[in-house]
Amino acid sequence: MAQMQLNNACKDYGSLRVIDKLNLKVEDGSFTVFVGPSGCGKSTLLRMIAGLEHISDGELLIDGERKNEATPVGRGVAMVFQNYALYPHMSVERNIGFGLKMAKLEKKDIQDRVQKAAEILKIEPLLKRKPAALSGGQRQRVAIGRAIVREPGLFLFDEPLSNLDAELRVAMRVEIAKLHRTLGSTMIYVTHDQTEAMTLADTIVVLHDGTIEQVGSPVELYNDPDNMFVAGFIGSPRMNFLQGTVTLEGNGANVQLLSGARIPVTPEQTEQWTAGMRVHVGMRPEHLRVCEKADPSSISVNVDVMENLGGTRYIYGQTGDGENITVEYREEHLLRSGDTVSVRMDTDKLRLFAESGARLRLATV
Amino acid sequence: MSAARNNDAMIGKSSPWATWLVGAVAFLWIIPIVGIIVTSIRPLNEISLGWWNVEQFTLTLDAWRTVWDKYPLAYAFWVSVKISVISTLIPMIFAPMAAYAFHFLQFRFRRVMLIIVINAFVLPSQVVVIPLFVLWRKLGLIDNIWAVIIPFAGMSFAWAVYLVKSYLDDFPRELIEAAQVDGCGPIARFFYIVLPNSLTPIAAVGILQFLWTWNGLLLPVVYLREELPLTALLARIQGVYDRNWDQVAVAAIVTTVVPLIIFIVFQRYFTAGASTRSGSKE
Ligand SMILES: Nc1ncnc2c1ncn2[C@@H]1O[C@H](COP(=O)(O)OP(=O)(O)O)[C@@H](O)[C@H]1O
Ligand SMILES: [Mg+2]
Questions:
Q1: Hey, what CATH class is A4-225 in?
Q2: What's the CATH superfamily of A240-360?
Q3: ipTM of the complex
Q4: How far is B60 from chain A (nearest CA, A)?
Q5: Hey, where are the domains in chain A?
Q6: Ion ligand 2: protein residues whose beta carbon lies under 5 Å
Q7: pLDDT 10s digits, B193-244
Q8: Would you give the DSSP letter of residue A362?
């Protein structure tokens, strides 16, 4: 069990700044997921915590102690790599026990702990095999075994499931969640897949270009994103963004869409608002409804494709002004390409963003 | 039908032409070897018209006996073994260490030092023969096998380090990082992770270096007087009379047989390639 904190952590590769003055606190026992698009610095950040990458500036604290200069073992971390990184010349048993051997544990002790880890991960029959004789999923289990056997305070996972096929990925995801519950250790998990982040995390850290966009629980990020980047990244299918223009009316305001639909809103802080300013109107597909009749606040959508996922169906289409829009469809009768439907949304579910991408919060009634 | 035939070609079933061609080339290669063997076991007067001449055909071990009695063949063999084994083991042990350090560790002047080491590549060994001779004479190392071993081993580092280092270019860095997380320091990472997975290039270094030092002639001839390895002795036998082809053939066989065996036994290491590579990739 360990708590981890970064103060103004930076990483430079030559003149290229990859992580910029990052502040973060990971609570003891939490499952924290770093999520963000490819190349945003997730792996770099994780490797800085692991001790594989020098921290150019700032401070890393583990359990309150500065650990910038400590070795990975000195930091009490274990890591699971994306490509498993199993030692090809060692049997599974020796792969798992290798860290213990380096820590100079008794042979008997090592055997017991390897056995226990193998039981937890259900890989006992594989102990004598070499990594080359294992399937992808089995290799990943061994890699996880190698991490848990050392009983570290902090587990680091770098996209551990991205080399597995979809079905196995879901199964392993569940197992990692279980493992976290069983061990109770602090885990930091890197992924570019927001579904993985949503399902595993108790805290999500959204990264973008080496800085944190937002930290929060999955529900917080979904319901209350700080900015357009987070709103667009969290949630699947992606949130729709339509263009709008603000007109003020006393304490209230109206947002007018390109289609002419007017949505009355109540700003939380009126000083952020000016008449005529352009905004992005964010609406999630699952908060849009196809309605029978057009009215002033509805949007008409030309259907391009209807995607049937079995339980849910999505309409991919365009508004009259050529903006792309995705709508969850709950009606019975099927739509065809070229059909036009009217779509309405609950005003309390829409999220407004300034041109800069910053969130414009609305007063909750 | 024709699709099936195409398939055969694609999965590499060779055409009969290729077999014949390879056979012919192999035959051409083997003629000199047969020639040497035949020369060594026939009397000199019979082979003066060519070893293939069969007007008269007698088999004799005379040449073998003469060479054995007249020249210190066994001793020269022993000297050859000592020189080759020691000058081979040195780069086999140290070149991987150097390659590892240059490839995976950070230290001052890394690039400059690497360039200096690799640059010895372009230095022909002939250039160092005279200066080294002067040096060995001052140090009293003439006729001492170390006078040959030191330059043999030293000059091999350029290509040996380069060879192992280029193999390490493809070495999965994650393995080394995993070992780091498992608590290995830089030296333990080399011995536990890099070394066991680099047997292919190390074997290649060993085989090439052994063959080169075994066959090396220039340095032994210049620096050694009595402690002669086989190649130098062969040169001497050749130099004594002008008509002793049978004896020369004997010495040549003795000299060649070791590299031949080495090559046959270890040839799979030349093709083994990346089979030791990581279980990390699918
Ligand atoms: N060794 C390096 N030298 C220079 N740039 C690097 C190095 N490693 C990573 N980067 C850069 O740092 C950025 C973040 O990389 P990374 O942390 O691997 O991203 P992610 O894991 O989020 O996909 C990328 O733009 C990448 O090009
Ligand atoms: Mg990455």
A1: alpha beta
A2: Nucleic acid-binding proteins (2.40.50.140)
A3: 0.86
A4: 53
A5: 4-225, 240-360
A6: A 43
A7: 999 999 889 988 998 899 899 998 889 989 998 889 988 888 888 776 667 7
A8: B
